Amino acid sequence: MTKMPVLFVGHGSPMNALDKNPFTEGLHQLAGKIPRPQAILAVSAHWETTGTQILSAANPQTIHDFYGFPKALFDIRYPAPGAPELAAETQKLVGGDAILTEKWGYDHGTWSILLHMYPEANIPVYQLSLDVKKDPKAHVEIGRKLQALREKGVLILGSGNIVHNLRLINWKDQKAVYPWAKEFDLKVKAALENREDYKLMYLDENQEADRLSVPSADHYLPLLYCYGASTPEDSISYPYEGYELGSLSMRSVLWK
């Protein structure tokens, strides 16, 4: 079986689920450039828990975890089957306090990406949560435990944003980027390429770029899982690079 790549996607606004733009077209094209997965394990910014949880439902629900958007967005369903057996195997790999749960589904960090990549929704999908009690090193270490899944045809998909500051969004200019946002995005890119674990795990709150780019960890942490699941032997590339609304990095990262 072909070893699967690891993919991190900067997902941006939920409206990308409905919009046709260079970002969503890039997702569509990307699906044809990587091997077809046997299953997909998603690590989304939008599932935070105390303790690590793994979605084991056979037919997960589509979660609309937002408000104030058009009805068409709430009408979307992504009816991909779950992967209970792989969820149980993943629980064993992660170990520790990891538990299985059916009390979740596909949040928009997952389905807003997959409906562009795999619109047929016929690939099994399951999710792994972000434990809010763990430090950055522990998140990377869980990612390393997931490496074995790549040999079983599982695409590990992280969904968040390297730069994500909703309070400082520039609503007047869709393509704007603040200097500090670009600085941090490029700093992380260099750290990924040089595999500088410490720089990726421990941000410097004394630096404006670090502090403003990651005001909360939720959208950044999925990148650490993907980094952990990658190996030094993987090549790294960027299927999509760009910025939106001043304070969002839309960078995607592919290891294969």
UniProtKB/TrEMBL annotation:
User: Could you say which cofactors this protein requires?
Assistant: Zn(2+)
Which PANTHER family does the record match to this protein? 4,5-DOPA DIOXYGENASE EXTRADIOL-LIKE PROTEIN
Q: Which UniProt keywords apply?
A: Dioxygenase, Metal-binding, Oxidoreductase, Zinc
What protein name is recorded for this chain? 4,5-DOPA dioxygenase extradiol
Q: Which top EC class is named for this enzyme in its record?
A: oxidoreductase
Q: Which InterPro entries match?
A: Extradiol_dOase_DODA, Xdiol_dOase_suB
Q: Which domain of life, per UniProt?
A: Bacteria
Q: Which gene encodes it?
A: ygiD
EC number(s): the record gives 1.13.11.29
Kindly name one Pfam family recorded for this protein: LigB
Asked whether the UniProt record includes Cytoplasm among its keywords, one would answer no
Question: Which residue range or ranges hold the Extradiol ring-cleavage dioxygenase class III enzyme subunit B domain?
Answer: 24-228
